[in-house]
Amino acid sequence: MTRFVVCGETLIDLVRSASDTPTSFRSAWEALSAGGPMNSAVALGTLGADVQYLGRLSDDAFGGQLRAHIEAADVGLALSTESSQATSLAVVSLDEQGVATYTFHFDDTANFGWQPDELPSLGDDDWLHIASLSCVVSPGNEVLLDWMETVRSGVSYDINVRPTVIKDPAVYWARVEPWLEVVGRRDGILKASDVDIEFLSRAAGGSDPLEIVTGWVERYGLGLAVVTLGADGAVAVEPGGAVTKVPGFTVDVVDTVGAGDTFMAGFLEARVEQGLDLEESLLRGAAAAAIVCGRQGAQPPTAAEVDALVARA
Length: 313
Fold this sequence. Notes:
8-stranded mixed beta sheet
């Protein structure tokens, strides 16, 4: 059985309470356990995979909530580090379609203070999934990138662009490109959304997401690139240019928080752990993402729930 090691940030999403009647003096917000990589770890655990979360957790009250949330999904914390720094926060805004945007509060918080001696050696039976802001926010991103050069397990990387953190596409691309290079040297898997690619293309060049990611596969030697397309499903590009696409699933959207993270968990559990073919793996990822969009926040589905939705496809 593959041991998935998921590395990256965890944080608290502050979401306006639907039952609140705000005034100019007060408003009510719900504090939801969140953070892209942590969402993927919890989703993998909920699907029944063997998972360790590799992150930096605060010893404050929010850190305690996050720790309990992770452990409730049968995700191990043996590789994680406890920090006296505060938990990172994200204020979430939802548009009329439930699509989320984020304003982050990261200054001197636990996620980004990585030290080299906090990072483990991984074995051949491990699969490292690393993602999101931890890969681009200083000072920890440089430590993680140096460590990544030593990793010899299977690897996947989710870009998960957050333009409210780094607004300049050229600066963002300069921090993402070294990850494409190191993942390519491991014949690894890249995941990005079409929105991620559109933002980065302003610096990296190109206009069509599929053409751009096909170029990345060839240029960086990636073993596979997977692009999520929102309600339209997902597409994968293999070396040599072979393309596999699956449609999305219809769902009454509550919000899109954690959709891409949950997609990647469903895809990796199917592709890496079960050894399913590419189309089946994409379909299970799309089903997992659709289910989470029908719930508030990143509340991932069980394997049985994914099975049921896929069976209706």
